[in-house]
Amino acid sequence: MHTVLDILQKTTDFFSGKGVESARLNAELIVGHALGLKRMQLYLQFERLLTEPELERIRPLVRRRGQREPLAYVLGTAEFCGLTLKADRRALVPRPETERLVELLQERCVPPPTRVLDLGTGTGCIALALASAWPGAEVVAVDASEEALALARENGESTGLAARVRWLKSDWFSGLPVDARFDLIVSNPPYLTAEETAAAEPEVRTYEPASALTAAEAGMADLRKIIAGAPRFLAPGGWLAMETGIAQHAALLADLARAGLHDGESVKDLADRDRFVVARAG
User: Fold this and answer.
1) What pLDDT, on the 0 to 100 scale, is given for residue 282?
2) What is the dihedral of CA 126, 207, 216, 195, to 10 degrees?
3) Residue 152 scores a pLDDT above 90
4) Nearest CA-CA partner of 68 in 10, 16, 28
5) Which of the pair, 282 or 154, is modelled with greater confidence?
6) Superfamily of domain 89-280 in the CATH hierarchy
7) What are phi and psi of 108, to 5 degrees?
8) With pLDDT > 70 as the criterion, what percentage of the chain qualifies?
């Protein structure tokens, strides 16, 4: 028989051997999830003997994480801006950098926009976080992937925000009404080069959808499509905000100016890296 602490130590060692970052934290989260316990509850039961049915619930989750499947996919959820979202291989795992983008928008967009467009919504994380933050905003979220849209709709239902967001299948702007106008267009599009994706951790390159990660033109093809199309759909004074790669800003700021957008700015993330670009319509 094994205690909770025995299994945590064995799982931590196993994860460390597989190259899993923060092996002990991953072990605690996965074992706790399998047992239906929060981390503090887990600590209080270190000496408890585990039953065979409990071990059978733990083993497949540990195996998946040892194969470097993202923790959020193994647990089935990810936290984002105070929302608990379903996470699986249909869309990228929501990341802290993107949480910072949502915070940036709340800082910059005062008063809040009345119409918001989220391009490439994935899990729906940005659209749902902004809908939650801005109760008076009408939010439209688009994605070219039917699978990603299905996941986003599920997250809308689970967060109680389904009525606040209109989900639309669209390859960037192509499916929008020609007369649609927005006070804010936001996107976290693909921005990695093929080489960057190939060099990424297994969690990224093996499990997350490549179409949501990688773009041509040094990672800027989709960013440039958005910049080119945004002026047509932005209301006067409306904002465009995008998450980007860290070596793309000089080129993207020039693209924003050529598109007729004003006040182009590079904004750093919490690690002090160039991560976001913002600009406004005239």
Assistant:
1) 85
2) 130
3) yes
4) 16
5) 154
6) Vaccinia Virus protein VP39 (3.40.50.150)
7) -85, -35
8) 100
Spatial separation of the C-alpha atoms in residues 115 and 57, rounded to whole Å: 45
Cα distance between residue 9 and residue 6, in whole Å: 5
Q: Give the per-residue SS3 of 33-92.
A: HHHCCCHHHHHCCCCCECCHHHHHHHHHHHHHHHCCCCHHHHHCEEEECCEEEECCCCCC
Which two tokens mark 42?
Answer: 């887990």
CB atoms within 10 A of CB 103: 14
Paired strand residues for 80: 83
Domain ranges of the chain: 4-67, 89-280
**C-alpha distances in Å from residue 179, one per residue of 185, 232, 235, 237, 254:** 15, 9, 11, 17, 27
The DSSP bridge partners found for residue 140 are 117, 166
Residue 26 CA to residue 60 CA, distance in Å, equals 14
Does the reported pTM lie above 0.85?
yes
- C-alpha–C-alpha distance, residues 198 and 206, integer Å: 9
The answer to whether 21 touches 12, Cβ cutoff 8 Å, is no
Our CA angle for 261, 267, 273, nearest 5°, is 140
* Residue 66 main-chain phi, psi, to 5 deg: -65, -25
